[in-house]
Amino acid sequence: MVTQINIKGFEDFVKYTDTIDRNGPPVVFYFSGSKLPDGNSWCPDCVEAEPIVKAYLSELNKNIIFVYVDVGEREYWKDRACPFRTDSRSKLMVIPTLIKWGSVQRLEGSQCGQRDLLQMLFEDDE
Length: 126
Fold this sequence. Notes:
This protein is of the alpha/beta class. It has five helices and five strands; from the N terminus they run βαβαβααββα.
């Protein structure tokens, strides 16, 4: 069963990471640009990847926690001092990015929309 959580902003991301149970189910973070009034992200790569990620999650029969993180507006994200870019917990270079918490496994940019790579990230328990 996939548990989905939505987080907005860096402060809430940090607060959530402090509560992760290391003995609990795997946690995967999905970082995306904030939504525009039409419901889509300002980030075209995020718009492309999100339906593929959501479809994959709907088929996944595994106990995981999927955390959708809204990194904010385009101007905030593009600032090189953006904490999502500089903080050691995230070290984001692009969005979308999927990170399997507690490991080095991540998918960045167009990789997030590739089902075979999603399968490797979500199914691999190493």
